[in-house]
Amino acid sequence: MTDNVVDLATEAQKRGKFNLADTIKGRGFPEKSVDVYLDASSAYELEELNRVMNDETDPTKLAVLEEQAAELKKKIVDSRLTFHMRGVSQHSVEYVTEEADKLYPDLSDGVEDPNWIRHYLAALVAKNIYKVTDAEGNEDESKFTTEEILELRGALPIDAWSILVDTMQKLTLASSYFDAITDAGFLPKS
Protein backbone atom coordinates (compact mmCIF):
# COMPACT_ATOMS: atom_id res chain seq x y z
CA MET A 1 0.00 0.00 0.00
CA THR A 2 2.88 2.37 0.75
CA ASP A 3 4.28 1.82 -2.76
CA ASN A 4 0.87 2.74 -4.22
CA VAL A 5 0.76 6.00 -2.26
CA VAL A 6 4.32 6.86 -3.30
CA ASP A 7 3.48 6.12 -6.95
CA LEU A 8 0.37 8.34 -6.75
CA ALA A 9 2.34 11.17 -5.15
CA THR A 10 5.12 10.87 -7.73
CA GLU A 11 2.60 10.92 -10.59
CA ALA A 12 0.83 13.97 -9.14
CA GLN A 13 4.13 15.88 -8.95
CA LYS A 14 5.05 15.30 -12.60
CA ARG A 15 4.85 18.36 -14.78
CA GLY A 16 2.30 18.13 -17.53
CA LYS A 17 2.29 19.49 -21.03
CA PHE A 18 -0.14 21.89 -22.62
CA ASN A 19 -0.71 23.59 -25.95
CA LEU A 20 -0.08 27.32 -25.58
CA ALA A 21 -2.17 28.27 -28.63
CA ASP A 22 -5.19 26.32 -27.34
CA THR A 23 -4.74 27.76 -23.85
CA ILE A 24 -4.74 31.43 -24.86
CA LYS A 25 -7.18 31.30 -27.79
CA GLY A 26 -10.31 33.29 -26.94
CA ARG A 27 -9.33 33.81 -23.32
CA GLY A 28 -8.57 36.82 -21.26
CA PHE A 29 -10.51 39.35 -23.30
CA PRO A 30 -13.09 41.44 -21.47
CA GLU A 31 -16.74 41.18 -22.41
CA LYS A 32 -19.61 43.59 -22.15
CA SER A 33 -23.23 43.61 -23.29
CA VAL A 34 -24.77 46.91 -24.36
CA ASP A 35 -28.34 47.79 -25.25
CA VAL A 36 -29.23 49.95 -28.20
CA TYR A 37 -32.71 51.05 -29.20
CA LEU A 38 -33.73 51.28 -32.82
CA ASP A 39 -36.98 53.24 -32.59
CA ALA A 40 -35.58 56.76 -32.72
CA SER A 41 -38.90 58.08 -33.98
CA SER A 42 -40.75 56.99 -30.84
CA ALA A 43 -37.91 58.30 -28.68
CA TYR A 44 -38.23 61.71 -30.33
CA GLU A 45 -42.02 61.65 -29.91
CA LEU A 46 -41.62 60.72 -26.24
CA GLU A 47 -39.20 63.59 -25.68
CA GLU A 48 -41.69 66.01 -27.24
CA LEU A 49 -44.55 64.50 -25.26
CA ASN A 50 -42.58 64.88 -22.02
CA ARG A 51 -42.21 68.60 -22.71
CA VAL A 52 -45.97 68.92 -23.20
CA MET A 53 -46.62 66.89 -20.02
CA ASN A 54 -44.33 69.15 -17.99
CA ASP A 55 -46.48 72.14 -18.94
CA GLU A 56 -49.86 70.41 -18.57
CA THR A 57 -51.85 71.21 -15.41
CA ASP A 58 -55.19 69.59 -16.28
CA PRO A 59 -55.23 66.12 -14.61
CA THR A 60 -57.57 64.65 -17.24
CA LYS A 61 -55.39 65.76 -20.13
CA LEU A 62 -52.27 64.67 -18.22
CA ALA A 63 -53.71 61.15 -17.77
CA VAL A 64 -54.24 60.86 -21.55
CA LEU A 65 -50.70 62.10 -22.20
CA GLU A 66 -49.27 59.63 -19.67
CA GLU A 67 -51.06 56.81 -21.47
CA GLN A 68 -49.53 57.91 -24.78
CA ALA A 69 -46.12 58.12 -23.11
CA ALA A 70 -46.46 54.56 -21.78
CA GLU A 71 -47.25 53.30 -25.30
CA LEU A 72 -44.22 55.08 -26.72
CA LYS A 73 -41.97 53.70 -23.96
CA LYS A 74 -43.13 50.17 -24.77
CA LYS A 75 -42.38 50.68 -28.47
CA ILE A 76 -38.89 51.91 -27.58
CA VAL A 77 -38.21 48.99 -25.23
CA ASP A 78 -39.49 46.55 -27.84
CA SER A 79 -36.93 47.92 -30.32
CA ARG A 80 -34.01 46.97 -28.05
CA LEU A 81 -31.08 44.98 -29.35
CA THR A 82 -28.42 43.76 -26.95
CA PHE A 83 -24.97 43.50 -28.49
CA HIS A 84 -22.69 41.06 -26.68
CA MET A 85 -19.13 42.13 -27.33
CA ARG A 86 -15.65 40.81 -26.53
CA GLY A 87 -12.30 42.54 -26.90
CA VAL A 88 -9.92 41.35 -29.60
CA SER A 89 -6.21 40.63 -29.83
CA GLN A 90 -3.51 42.96 -31.05
CA HIS A 91 -3.21 40.70 -34.09
CA SER A 92 -6.84 41.46 -34.99
CA VAL A 93 -6.26 45.20 -34.68
CA GLU A 94 -3.16 44.98 -36.87
CA TYR A 95 -5.01 42.89 -39.46
CA VAL A 96 -7.87 45.41 -39.62
CA THR A 97 -5.38 48.29 -39.90
CA GLU A 98 -3.51 46.59 -42.77
CA GLU A 99 -6.80 45.79 -44.50
CA ALA A 100 -7.99 49.41 -44.22
CA ASP A 101 -4.58 50.67 -45.44
CA LYS A 102 -4.80 48.47 -48.56
CA LEU A 103 -8.40 49.40 -49.34
CA TYR A 104 -8.14 53.11 -48.55
CA PRO A 105 -4.60 54.49 -48.95
CA ASP A 106 -4.01 58.13 -48.17
CA LEU A 107 -5.27 60.54 -50.81
CA SER A 108 -2.79 62.16 -53.22
CA ASP A 109 -2.45 65.21 -50.98
CA GLY A 110 -1.45 62.99 -48.03
CA VAL A 111 -4.82 63.35 -46.30
CA GLU A 112 -6.38 60.19 -44.91
CA ASP A 113 -9.25 58.82 -47.00
CA PRO A 114 -12.44 59.26 -44.88
CA ASN A 115 -13.48 55.72 -45.84
CA TRP A 116 -10.43 54.40 -43.96
CA ILE A 117 -11.80 55.24 -40.51
CA ARG A 118 -15.30 54.00 -41.40
CA HIS A 119 -13.88 50.67 -42.54
CA TYR A 120 -11.51 50.43 -39.57
CA LEU A 121 -14.22 51.05 -36.97
CA ALA A 122 -16.78 48.80 -38.67
CA ALA A 123 -14.25 45.96 -39.00
CA LEU A 124 -13.29 46.16 -35.33
CA VAL A 125 -16.92 46.38 -34.21
CA ALA A 126 -17.62 43.30 -36.35
CA LYS A 127 -14.76 41.42 -34.69
CA ASN A 128 -15.99 42.44 -31.21
CA ILE A 129 -19.62 41.31 -31.62
CA TYR A 130 -20.14 37.64 -30.84
CA LYS A 131 -23.91 37.68 -30.35
CA VAL A 132 -26.93 39.97 -30.69
CA THR A 133 -30.14 39.42 -28.74
CA ASP A 134 -33.45 41.09 -29.57
CA ALA A 135 -36.06 42.26 -27.06
CA GLU A 136 -37.83 38.87 -27.23
CA GLY A 137 -34.65 36.97 -26.37
CA ASN A 138 -33.96 35.65 -29.89
CA GLU A 139 -30.24 35.36 -30.58
CA ASP A 140 -28.09 35.90 -33.64
CA GLU A 141 -24.61 34.39 -33.26
CA SER A 142 -23.51 35.16 -36.80
CA LYS A 143 -19.94 36.11 -37.50
CA PHE A 144 -20.58 39.61 -38.82
CA THR A 145 -18.64 40.98 -41.77
CA THR A 146 -17.31 44.49 -42.12
CA GLU A 147 -19.81 45.10 -44.92
CA GLU A 148 -22.74 44.01 -42.73
CA ILE A 149 -21.59 46.30 -39.93
CA LEU A 150 -21.18 49.20 -42.36
CA GLU A 151 -24.77 48.58 -43.46
CA LEU A 152 -25.85 48.41 -39.81
CA ARG A 153 -24.00 51.67 -39.14
CA GLY A 154 -26.08 53.35 -41.83
CA ALA A 155 -29.34 52.06 -40.36
CA LEU A 156 -28.74 52.62 -36.64
CA PRO A 157 -29.59 55.84 -34.83
CA ILE A 158 -26.35 57.79 -34.40
CA ASP A 159 -26.25 57.36 -30.62
CA ALA A 160 -26.61 53.57 -30.99
CA TRP A 161 -23.59 53.44 -33.32
CA SER A 162 -21.63 55.58 -30.85
CA ILE A 163 -22.40 53.09 -28.06
CA LEU A 164 -21.04 50.20 -30.16
CA VAL A 165 -17.86 52.09 -31.14
CA ASP A 166 -17.27 53.26 -27.56
CA THR A 167 -17.69 49.73 -26.21
CA MET A 168 -15.39 48.28 -28.89
CA GLN A 169 -12.71 50.84 -28.04
CA LYS A 170 -12.89 50.13 -24.31
CA LEU A 171 -12.78 46.36 -24.81
CA THR A 172 -10.02 46.50 -27.42
CA LEU A 173 -7.85 48.80 -25.33
CA ALA A 174 -8.38 46.77 -22.15
CA SER A 175 -4.93 45.18 -22.43
CA SER A 176 -3.36 48.61 -21.99
CA TYR A 177 -5.39 48.99 -18.79
CA PHE A 178 -3.83 45.74 -17.59
CA ASP A 179 -0.34 47.02 -18.42
CA ALA A 180 -1.04 50.15 -16.42
CA ILE A 181 -1.86 48.22 -13.24
CA THR A 182 1.00 45.70 -13.33
CA ASP A 183 4.74 46.04 -13.38
CA ALA A 184 7.25 44.09 -15.43
CA GLY A 185 7.40 41.47 -12.69
CA PHE A 186 3.69 40.76 -13.16
CA LEU A 187 2.93 42.06 -9.68
CA PRO A 188 0.29 44.63 -8.81
CA LYS A 189 1.65 48.15 -8.64
CA SER A 190 1.32 49.75 -5.26
How would you describe this structure to a colleague?
The chain is of the alpha+beta class. It has a domain at 30-37 and 80-181. 61% of the residues lie in helices and 12% in strands. The protein contains nine helices and four strands, in the order H-H-E-H-H-E-H-H-E-E-H-H-H. It has helices at residues 2-13, 20-24, 40-55, 59-78, 90-103, 114-128, 146-155, 158-172, 174-181; strands at 31-37, 80-86, 129-134, 139-140. The chain has a four-stranded antiparallel β-sheet. A hairpin with a 4-residue loop joins strand 3 and strand 4. The longest helix has 20 residues, at 59-78. It is flat. The mean pLDDT is 86.
Taken in chain order, the helices and strands follow as HHEHHEHHEEHHH
- Give the oligomeric state of the chains in this entry, treating copies of one chain as homo and distinct chains as hetero: single chain
Query: What coarse outline follows from CA principal-axis ratios?
Result: flat
Question: How many H/I helical runs?
Answer: 9
Number of strands: 4
The value of Rg in angstroms is: 25 Å
User: How much helicity do the residues have?
Assistant: 55-70%
Would you summarize the structure shown here?
The protein is of the alpha+beta class and 190 residues long. The chain has helices at 2-13, 20-24, 40-55, 59-78, 90-103, 114-128, 146-155, 158-172, 174-181, and strands spanning 31-37, 80-86, 129-134, 139-140.
How is the secondary structure organized here?
Layout: H1 2-13, H2 20-24, E1 31-37, H3 40-55, H4 59-78, E2 80-86, H5 90-103, H6 114-128, E3 129-134, E4 139-140, H7 146-155, H8 158-172, H9 174-181
Antiparallel strand pairs: 1-2, 2-3, 3-4
